Amino acid sequence: MPEEGTPHQLTFMAWPTRQIWGRDTSYVRDDIASIAQAVAGFEPVTMLAGEQDVEAAQRACGAEVEVIPIPVEDLWVRDTGPTFVLGAQGIAGVDLNFNGWGGKQAHRKDSRVAEEILGFKHVPRIEAPIVGEGGSIEIDGEGTLMATESSWVNANRNPGKSRDDIEQALKGLFGVNKVIWVKGVKGHDITDYHIDALARFSEPGVVVMSTPPEGGPHDVWKAAYEQARGVLSRTVDARGRRLEIVALPEATNLGDVGEGFLSSYVNYYLCNGGVIFPSFGDKRADRNGAAIVRELHPGREVVQVPIVSLAEGGGGIHCATQQLPKVV
Question: Record keywords: Hydrolase included (predicted)?
């Protein structure tokens, strides 16, 4: 699996439905359209939408975004779509058998999204021997993968499978030889705590972590952060390098938001020449986060997109995008 910063052919996204989002649908659609337009400034975007929503999606996203009729339930194409890998025969897509994050949400249509995308692009499909989501892995492109145990070693996805069983499958599917496991949190959010909300590789050997505020509540999220930071500070990657950890402080001055609000800045997206980066309305934290990411990704233009409604749904920009790598 190539790392996210390598060249892309395009970005896939998915149009949210009223079935899932209810009265918040119009607000979330505004966020998704804004992200799509931002990405389209750097590379092509293909938006999946149910037939009944194609026209509305096209109007909202504009002519720069291609909208195609593929049935979806939710917008989280990082999880429902294929994860692309490169090999001797070219490109293929790994279908991780999406099951609604362990049966927590309807997924009759979304469970077929990976297969539908691969058929649309005429890309060979690799059916994984495990169940998971694209947001539950993070790779450096040089043989190292990070993951939370909570979203993989879990009876709601992989009953009867040990961590070793899952690790061997991940190594085979994504071409890595080192898996770094952190504990994560089970049962407190719909994903069982994906790694892409906690820690990302900004480059091989460098991990940027979503960092809770000092003096904040010592809740399950703070404990998971501390455990993960401890693991990452002690381990080495597939090349034997000790990891440099960069703190990316979370937004805290958020006003009246729900308990599930994802204020993590690490859930950003790299596209061709750009970084699509969230803003949450915490002006100081928004500015500080963007400055840190500019330093981590020199030569890329950082474009901030307000995603308050999306974050209320417990996800972010990375969760809502999936790259199709360019075969070079």
Answer: yes
Residue 301 zone, left/alpha/beta (φ > 0; ψ -120 to 50; rest): beta
CB atoms within 10 A of CB 247: 12
Q: Which of 319, 321, 322, 325 is catalytic?
A: 319
- Give the separation between CA 199 and CA 148, rounded to whole angstroms: 10
Respond yes or no: is residue 319 known to be catalytic: yes
Question: What is the C-alpha to C-alpha distance for residues 90 and 11, in angstroms, rounded to an integer?
Answer: 18
Task: Name the residue range of residue 98's domain.
Answer: 8-325
Is 202 domain-assigned? yes
Find residue 201's DSSP bridge partners: 207
Cα 92 from Cα 1, distance rounded (Å)? 10
* CATH code, domain with 186: 3.75.10.10
What total number of domains does the chain contain? 1
| Residue of 267, 285, 179, 279 whose CA lies nearest to 231 | 179
- Residue 1 inside a domain? The answer is no
**169 within domain boundaries:** yes
The fraction of the chain above a pLDDT of 90, given in percent, is 93
pLDDT in tens, 167-202: 999 999 999 999 999 999 999 999 999 999 999 999
Q: What is the mean pLDDT of each run of 10 residues along the chain (328 residues)?
A: 97 97 97 98 98 98 98 98 94 98 96 98 98 98 98 98 98 98 96 98 98 87 97 97 97 84 96 98 96 98 97 96 94
> For the chain, where are the E strands, in sequence order?
8-14, 45-49, 65-69, 83-87, 90-95, 125-127, 138-139, 144-148, 178-182, 199-203, 206-211, 244-249, 269-271, 274-279, 301-306, 322-325
- Does any domain span residue 264? yes
CA distances from 226 to 40, 52, 195, 242, 252 (A): 37, 45, 14, 18, 18
